[in-house]
Amino acid sequence: MITVIADDLTGAAEIAGICLHYGLGVSFGIDKIPEKQTTINVIATDTRSKDEDEAYETHFHLAEDVISKSKNIIFKKCDSVLRGHVLIELLALADAANKNKIFLQPSNPKSNRFIKDASYYINDILIENTGFANDPDFPAKTSSVKKRILNNVAKQHTLEVHTGDFKEINTKGIFIPDCDSVEALSECLNLYQKDMIIAGSAAFFEQFLIKMKLTNSKVEQKEYRYSSNYLLVSGSTHPKSIAFSKTLNKLNVPLIVFPETLLETKLNKTFLNEFVNSIAHVYKGRERIILRVSNDRIQLENSALNLKTRMSIIAKKLIETSNINEVFIEGGATAYDLLEELHWKSFTPIAELASGVVRMQYDNDPKKHITLKPGSYEWSEGLLN
């Protein structure tokens, strides 16, 4: 069996979707080993939004827990463009497992994200010359894979980072080989050794499943459509997300924009309760509703933090008071905060509705389902019409 640890919720869900495609049993836990043990166990964390020390501690203790309870291979799911505390989290897993070799392949050639001559490219453009250079949390200021992974890492370590084109591995260290095609993604696994920590993109994980002979022919996914009894919570300002909300609104799905008043430093609880009651009234009339962030940039102090926490409080109240069974969430940070607020920790993934869009059943209440989608991905056509 394999346990996958991811640094964000939607990345973890993407892994679950791949497993469903191949008909593999998959379970899903948030910040803990899933209650059900299956062929693939996925653990989602939110360490990409935490500091370096917390990212290390979270991954170290999760790995210790996995190692103490099973003989599972641990696969570290990393962002394909190396956002997050990638090196720190890999070192945590290596320390917990007492290993000194790490094999990392973040490339996703199908999406034209690849490593060539030890540099990272997006659509044949060096990553430092793309929009990823302006990422608010992990800007790609260099295209050198080695420099990017070492950037701003405070923790001391003794493992050297090796990049480029190499044919064998016979020393300790962190190895990130060139990979500019789907064939190369598969072939680089010939370098993998059982005494290594293995890590990479969702695309690399799929190739790892194939190498481990865990895949059969792909399973055709059932088509789902929802006309009522759903809440769509969107914390994304990506143009695709905004356009989708507007499309649904034109089809008479009520669209509620999170009010700026609730982002002020001091929370107006009276206004919050009145706002929840008004949304519940709208939902009662239609049994479907969208709650999303404003498209406008908010300049209030701590607005980003207040938005995540207070939007989650409102969504929780609405789910519980209106007995909503289907919840669709756009954006990994939004999803993590809402599920934390609900205290929902263990799920069974049941369907991939579109690429990277995964529907899961809440283990403690089988009537409840959540569907997770990264903000930049697209919903399947007609899903919520």
CATH superfamily of the largest domain, by name, is Putative sugar-binding, N-terminal domain
Assign the CATH topology of the largest domain. Answer: Rossmann fold
Mean pLDDT: 90
**Into which percent range does the helicity of residues fall?**
25-40%
Rg calculated over all Cα atoms: 21 Å
Q: Pick out the low-confidence regions.
A: none
Structural class determined from secondary elements: alpha/beta
User: Mind describing the biggest β-sheet?
Assistant: 15 strands, mixed
CATH architecture label name of the largest domain? 3-Layer(aba) Sandwich
Proportion of strand residues: 15-25%
Counting DSSP H or I runs of 4 or more residues, the number of helices is 10
Number of strands: 18
Question: Topology of this protein?
Answer:
Layout: E1 2-6, H1 9-21, E2 26-30, E3 40-44, H2 52-69, E4 73-77, H3 86-97, E5 101-105, E6 113-116, E7 119-122, E8 125-126, H4 145-150, E9 161-164, E10 173-177, H5 182-187, E11 197-200, H6 202-211, E12 230-234, H7 239-250, E13 255-257, H8 269-286, E14 288-292, H9 303-321, E15 326-330, H10 332-342, E16 346-354, E17 357-362, E18 369-373
Helix pairs in contact: 2-3, 8-9, 9-10
Structure overview:
- The protein is of the alpha/beta class and 385 residues long.
- β17 (357-362) and β18 (369-373) form a beta hairpin.
- It contains 10 helices and 18 strands.
- α2 runs parallel beside α3 and α9 packs across α10 (332-342).
- The chain has 2 domains: 2-211, Rossmann fold (3-Layer(aba) Sandwich); 230-373, 3-Layer(aba) Sandwich (Molybdenum Cofactor Biosythetic Enzyme, Chain A), CATH 3.40.980.20.
- The chain has a 15-stranded mixed beta sheet, with helices on both faces. The chain has a 3-stranded antiparallel beta sheet with strand order 6-7-8, with no helix packed on it.
- The mean pLDDT is 90.
- It has helices at residues 9-21, 52-69, 86-97, 145-150, 182-187, 202-211, 239-250, 269-286, 303-321, 332-342, and strands at residues 2-6, 26-30, 40-44, 73-77, 101-105, 113-116, 119-122, 125-126, 161-164, 173-177, 197-200, 230-234, 255-257, 288-292, 326-330, 346-354, 357-362, 369-373.
